[in-house]
Amino acid sequence: MEYIQTVLFQVPASRLEQASETGGLLAELDGHRAYLKQQPGFRDLRLTRSINNEGNVLIVVETRWADDESLVRYETAEPNVAGIIRKHEDLLVRDSLQVLDMEALRTEASFARLESAEAARSRLVLPLIVPLGVLAFALLAIYGLSRIYLELDKGSAVGLATGVAIGILLIAVYVANNPRMPAWQVGGIFVVVIAALAGGTIWALVQEDEGEATGEPTASASPGASPAGSPAAGGGELALTLGDNFFELAGQKSPTLSVAAGKEATVSLTNTGIAPHNMHVADAGGQYPEAFCNPGGATPCSDPNLIKAGGTATIKINLGAGTYDFRCDFHPLEMTGTLEVQ
Ligand SMILES: [Cu+2]
Predict the structure, then answer these.
(1) What is the CA radius of gyration of the chain?
(2) How far is Cα 285 from Cα 290, in angstroms, rounded to an integer?
(3) Can you tell me the mean pLDDT for 271-295?
(4) Contact 285, 305 (CB under 8 A)
(5) Rounded to the nearest whole angstrom, what is the distance from the C-alpha of residue 227 to the centroid of ligand 1?
(6) Which residue, among 249, 307, 254, 255, has the nearest Cα to 278 in the 3D structure?
(7) Most exposed of 11, 43, 56, 182 (fewest Cβ within 10 Å)?
(8) Residues 195, 197, 199, 205: is their CA dihedral positive or negative?
(9) In whole angstroms, what is the distance from residue 238 CA to residue 267 CA?
């Protein structure tokens, strides 16, 4: 820290010329510079003057020192500024001499140190925070969106995906047209997007939990509810399990299910897997007129036509005698079975 000695004194304007002449006070102070420069810890000498209200010239002599020992050593030995001025006391306004020792709180050098410390901090923190933030955002987006899509039926999922795509497009168009976006707008967009993602993810997780809670009792109840595997001759209830990715009837995968002809049979379905499934019966020619079936459509279809993980559904079958294929529309190649109507 810097130490400063400030010596103030006043000279009547009428005597200024006398002070300025060769060998005068001001000349002697100028000459003192050479001596000061040789003193340890000396940094700077400044002489300033101004005229005050009484018409006197106020002169300020400032010497700057690297430490207080240097200043004290200088002050306590001759020659020094105060001593030189006292020799010319007859020139001065009476009692106008003042000597102040001051300690600098802040100097340009210390400001520069403060700033560079701040800059170093931000140089260290920014390259860490930005990639970590982007990574966290990407993970949230991937995890959140996948959870949300799993909870939605097909139509809503397509709607949401379209909405997300349009949203990204709108933001991109806006940013392209406003290259100098203020920071609060950038931050605002991020906050809204992250809030929507987090909200959607929480909603999806809650839905999932509820699905599990309601799914479990039904899943354990269904095996007892019907004599699985036996033909429902009287149009009674049958139960079929939907796993990842197979139909199962009494421990048999890709099973053959039998129902009576010309009567409505209701088959209850339980999704014990993680993926969504459904059940879609082909027409007599082995064709699926709809790629994705609808209850009440051309051929029998589970209601709902998307059975979430842990969810249950029913399918009503009322067909003429014959053998029909059925499948899951989500996994049409691997997830199939045969329906015998007798
Ligand atoms: Cu499936």
Answers:
(1) 46
(2) 14
(3) 94
(4) no
(5) 24
(6) 307
(7) 182
(8) negative
(9) 5
**Residue 31: both structure tokens together:** 């000459």
Average pLDDT, the chain: 86
Asked if residue 181 has pLDDT above 90, the reply is: no
Q: Output helix, strand, coil percentages for the chain, rounded to the nearest 5.
A: 45, 25, 30
Please enumerate in sequence order all residues whose Cβ is within 8 A of that of 31, keeping only pairs 6 or more positions apart, or say none: none
**Distance, CA 275 to ligand 1 centroid (Å)?**
7
Which residue in this structure is represented by tokens 């000459």?
A: 31
- Mean pLDDT in residue range 5-30: 89
Centroid of ligand 1 to alpha carbon of 254 (angstroms): 12
pTM assigned to the model? 0.37
φ and ψ at 206, to 5 degrees? -65, -45
Q: How far is ligand 1, taken at its centre, from the CA of residue 208, in Å? A: 18
d(CA 97, CA 241): 105
**Coil/strand/helix, residue 96:** coil
Answer yes or no: is pLDDT of 216 > 80: no
Beta bridge partners of 193: none
How far, in Å, is the centroid of ligand 1 from the Cα of 279?
8
| Residue 3: both structure tokens together | 């130490």
**Sheet harboring 56-65: ordered strands across?**
42-51, 56-65, 3-12, 98-103
Neighbours of 9 (CB within 10 A): 25
Residues 6+ apart with CB under 8 A from 30: 47
Calculate how far, in angstroms, residue 160's C-alpha sits from the geometric centre of ligand 1: 22
Domains recognised in the chain with CATH numbers? 3-105 (3.30.70.100), 110-212 (no CATH), 226-341 (2.60.40.420)
